[in-house]
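User: Sequence in, structure out. Go.
Assistant: Echoing your sequence, followed by the structure tokens.
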Amino acid sequence: MKTDTRIRPSDSTKHVRYEIRGSLARRALELERLGYEITSLNIGNPGIFGFRTPEVLRVSVIENLPRAEGYVHQKGVFSAREAIALQQEERGVKGVTTEDVFIGNGVSELIDMSLRALLNPGDEVLVPSPDYPLWTAAVTLNGGKAVHYPCRPENGFCPDPDEVASLVTPRTRAIVIINPNNPTGAVYPKALLERLVRTAETNQLVIFSDEIYDGITYDGTKMVPIATLVQDTLCATMSGLSKIYRACGYRVGWVSFSGATHRAGDYMASLELLSSLRLCSNVPGQYAVQSALGGYQSIRDLTKPGGRLYESRRAIVEGVAQSQYMRLTKPNGALYAFIEVLTDKLPNFNDHQFALDLLEQRHVLVTPGSSFNVPYSNHFRVTNLPDAQTLQMVFGRIEAQLADYAGQT
């Protein structure tokens, strides 16, 4: 007998958001199928903008394909883990060995597994606001509570370390630090990182440092690996091939543990158990790690004046500077700009409605700022991966959309 009973999803997904690939992105695909040309600025995917993975990485994968047909160790290929440990040592991080490194199917998988191995129901994790929304989602899906610490626009999107410390409770287990930051492009100064580390060490919080953009900084901005500052608590540094090496599809990320690893044996054993349950991560891509970390760092050519990422960022900064309706804290790192719309000029502005109107009427896809777990709705995020000429065109369309709003008020 047929019934009309609906299949109900898990309640755990009710409070999970990921608008980067959400309803707006789905609508953009529908418009493309109808023949419209959509300029997608919603996601940091270098491949769709013509960036190529360095040739030496492709060659390493191809040459090692015969060795990549079976499962490997649950933590990853030894040569790849060895290269990651060596990189940490060269950066000044003490005591990292191959046993302290786990390779996953991108940093995304490792975020989920690292939190799953740590959290019990009701445990709290300090997460920046704005954040990369996977962090909040992963805390929630693993039974924890994300407690957001503000990174306010008026403070250059840097957190107030005293405010962060005030949010610690007996249930707080960890703090997430995204540096260079997605979505804002902020790069935290050493003095700020030292104070965040002090709070973590005092309260024995695990530090999850998302450093996937660690090689993407501009104008001489120095990125300080937080693991170089941590001694008396556990530090998990996350990075991978996707952004620096333009190899998103390889799905190779890693987490390296440092600091008080001698007190984290049970936790790391639990993480290894979870790694074993999925047998291993993508094997062919792991053979690119050693070539990537030990080879020529072509990202530097892209981020210096005259380089494509630098000039695209310049186009965004100039586009906002010429606007009557927008303001921008200049991004010093990563691949994004988190742009403010001036509410004194557009008091009824709503980021989701704007993103939808911009898509439907101007065929430009951006991500609403409130998708990044902030309490305000007058920001939106764009990526600087398109070339400068494309971005100049895009900001002309954005300004026209905002001008239409102004004419309606």
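User: And one key feature?
Assistant: The chain has 14 helices and 13 strands.
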